[in-house]
Amino acid sequence: MINMFHLIWNGSRGCLEGCSMTRCTGRFMISRGIAGGMLLGVAFIMGLGASGDVQARKFASDGSTCVSSTGDTAVGRTVTPLTDSDPMDGSGTYSTVAGCNADGNGQLAATVYGTFSEVTGRGGSAFGFLSETGKWASALGLEAVATGTGGSAMGFGSRATALNSVAIGGAAGDGANPLAVENSTTASGQHAIAIGANDVRGAQATGTSAIAIGGEATASAVSTIAMGSGATSTADGAMALGDGASAKDTGSVATGHGARAETAGGVALGAGSQATREGMNGAEEAFSSEVVASTQGAVSVGRDGGERQVTHVAGGTEDTDAVNVRQLESVQAGAVNYDRHDDGSVDYRAVTLGHGGRPTQFHNVAPGEASTDAVNVGQLEELNGRFSRQISGLGSRIDNVEDNANAGTASAIAAASVPQAYLPGKSMVAAGAGTYSGESAVSVGVSRLSDNGRWAVKLNATGDSQGNFGTGIGAGFHW
């Protein structure tokens, strides 16, 4: 047989009394503490399970159960006054309020469970001692606060104070001393998420759409992410992943324990890596002299004194691809190599180009200026032209000298061919001609022999085929 009982509160005795549905003899009593637990359970079932009932539910005592018998007490970190009243203002439609000094503030569909808990906006749900929520928000845990519209706070002291923010974490600190309010796990940026805490500080997500996960993690800019104990991301779009990782400039990424990315677009990969070199921003590349306009910072896989190798790199195919050692070795095979001494040491005084007897060309060589500079083909061609012109001029001059010499010889022959006077007291006019090695000359002479036949005088004039002219005079004495 199944027996069913009514529970009736006996105010004078301070307890619930049960009686059979068929008769009320043989009543049994339930203590105040057990009754409180049962009332809370009944309240939960009635408040969350009922449907079609639009009235508010407020679970009150007999007027004495919510009066504290001790002084002010800090359950967590907040000292509260004495409890002195039943749940307040559960009059909002669809609302359920339970707990000493709990307050629904007349809000529509407010759900409040816990001493000093409070809902200040419609649709809010507060579960836990000193918990507080706003419109459409949910708070679960001791001193949990979700005052941002649609926010969610879970855990001791967690705080979600902005639109659609989420805070999950505890403020237990070192287990004996709870964290201060300002060090609680806090999501204060719109759509921000903060999860986790340690004995120093909870995660802090203060930027819009920021995400902070881990004790002391900080995400303080728009759409930034910090994950790991002490991770810090303080610029828009930045990301820090790993304990102590730090991303400090726009779009920077730091991944690994203690990694640091401090320039716009910089990337630090691996524990302890540091990306501190800024983008080229219009500077020229080394070797190629190509101007690069990118402002994105460098990618770093290590730091000074903590370098790393990058392995399994495929060969680059485009101008901006990385190359691997295999490609470099291929280039080196045809590159300049210093000669070596017999002992194998490098001979920096001699360089051999190419290999296997195959000569190598240099291209795009600037004209040399100093005495020890290399010269290019253009300079050699210019020098060759000048030398050729000089040689050609010298040949012409030599030819002229030869022609003039031959003509001079012809002139001498012509002058020698001119006869002279041979009768005493007589004069003679005579002419002669001569030729030598293709050149020719003519000569005209005047001569006279003295009356006594002892003196002879002669005057000659010559002209040759090279346009040269000459004169000569001579005298002689007979005895």
TrEMBL record:
GO terms for cellular component: cell outer membrane; cell surface. Keywords: Cell outer membrane, Membrane, Protein transport, Signal, Transmembrane, Transmembrane beta strand, Transmembrane helix, Transport. The keyword Membrane applies. It holds the Pfam family YadA_anchor. Residues 146-170, 184-198, 205-231, 234-259 form the Trimeric autotransporter adhesin YadA-like head domain. It is found in: Cell outer membrane; Cell surface. Residues 309-338, 363-401 form the Trimeric autotransporter adhesin YadA-like stalk domain. This is YadA domain protein.
